[in-house]
Structure formats: C-alpha cells, structure tokens
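Co-fold these.
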Amino acid sequence: MKNSFDEKILEEANDWLNANQKVVLATVIQTWGSSPRQVGSRMIVNETGDFSGSVSGGCVESAVVRECIGLIKDNKPCKKIEFKVSNESAWEVGLACGGEIAVYLEQIN
Amino acid sequence: MKHSQLKEIIKKKASKIEFAIVTNLENGLSEIYEPGKSLSKEFEIHKEQIDNFFKLKKNGVIENTEIFIETYIRPIKVIIVGAVHIAQYLVDFAKSLNFEISIIDPRGYFASEQRFPDMKIINKWPDEAFKEIETNENSALIALTHDPKIDDPALQHAINKKFYYIGALGSKKTHENRCQRLKEAGFNSDQINSIHGPIGIKLGGRSAPEIALSIIAQLVSETYKK
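Predicted complex below.
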C-alpha cells in the first residue's frame, strides 16, 4: 500500500499563502538506491527560510531551503535539483545513506 | 502552481475522491486529473501512462518524459465500534495517517460531538449503522466496547465482508468467550482466527493512549501486509 500517510503539507502551504508569505513547494520526484523519503514526499519553504515537511532524513534540507529562497529572489517558477552520494567535502548537502534523489521546486502564486 | 489550483487540490483531498496531480517538470505547468475525465492537450497523450500509475497506486516520472504524476487514492475506511476513551486517542493518532474513521456507538452519551469534534459518529446499533457505510476487503474494524450486544454484530459484519483487519478489545478470557459465541453463530475457525484479540501489538502499556498506540501500530502493520 502507498500513500498511507498524509502530512498535510499542502494544507499548511495554503495557510502560509493566506498569511501573505511566499511559498515554494519542494517534491521528491525520483529516487535511486536507498533514499530516506519516498517519491511524493514534500516540504515547503517561505522567503525567510522557514520550512515544514521533509524531502530526506535531514540530509539535504538546508540546501533545498537555499535553493527555494533563490527561486523566490530570482522570481523563477520552477527548478529541478538532484542530490547524490555525499563526500566529506560536501557533507552538508549529500545523502549519507548513499542514495540519490531528484527534487522539484515550484513557486505557488 | 497557482494558489487557486492548490486550493482545489486541498478540496479534492478533503472530499476523499481519487485524483492525480500531473506536472510538466520543464515548464512548470500542472493539472488535476480525475480518472475517466479528459486532460488538456499537453497531457492527454500521457493518459494511458497516468492511468497506469493509478492502477499501481504510485507516484513518479513517466519514463523518458519530464511528466511527474502524484496520485491520491481513497483513504482506508476504519470503523471504530465504541466511542470510548481509547477511541479518542485513536482518532488523534490517526489524524496524520491516511485513514477515514467512522465511529459507531448506539449509546448517545458516549458518541457525543463534544467528545469527538469533526468526526463521523453514527449513533445507531451496528446492524443499522453499517447500512450507512460502504465496506469491503479494504476496510478495517476496531471493536472497543467489549459488550457482546454491540461488538458481536459488528464483528460478524466485518468477517462476512472480509475486512483486512479486525481487532477486538478484551482480555484473553473475554476473547475466548467471544470466539465461542462466533463458533456457535456458525463461523469457522479461519474466520474467527482472523480477529486480532486481544487487540494490539504487545507494548506493555495499560493506559488509554498506550492501548490506542498499540492498536494503531497493529493496524498500520497489517495495512502494509495487504
């Protein structure tokens, strides 16, 4: 069975938008190898870097937040980013689990 | 994605209908798709693939394209018999899970709206109540009254409809008596053994929230065995 959990991220995005915040929705669209969150996992980020939900087990969230803020600043509608296996010099944005994930960012407006 | 589209998605989620969000990852265009309905020109050529994702109940990118599909399937129906203290915690735990809960209790003072705000409560005896709920092998039953008058008819309904999960609260002794009654009512041992009794995984806890946690853990575990 899939979709057994409903994290209400979209509902939260709606609340943020109603509070006049800018919101970027990040969605896991592909995974390879052992990745912590399944396809369809979501997080939202606002212009000040507040976020809710997750796209990994905490491994790449900081990078996703930075990318989302960039998207808002550049006023771009969407972007696709990929994260691969971590190495020591890039510990902050790698997946320690050895998996790879692709995340799709889109502004809601 | 437009805010208006997000609002529509939230509305569709709340009404528990099946739909998918189809997104072109290159240009950011996205659309809501309901099985059987048509799509715009841009996505119509992928219809067969989208329906296939529905069949497999999965999310993902259509191979060799930049089209992402996220499917929303109907939540699993969980029927709780007995609007008791444990049920209040079950409702809390189930909030973040994709279960659609209905509570049956003929005793009005238990099944009050004040005790269960925003819940579908059917203040009738199980035989009558089940006429209002469509159930099948994708449904689950949690019987909590340990009163044979209320639990037994619900258990019999669940067995007959082949619910994938049936659990009944009560001690080993209570459960033995229950099994005996069901045997006398003509149910075979396979049917009777499909009931999880005493209900829940072994956690060791005895308080209402701890019992609720052990029940919800068992329910999730059985859901993944489906």
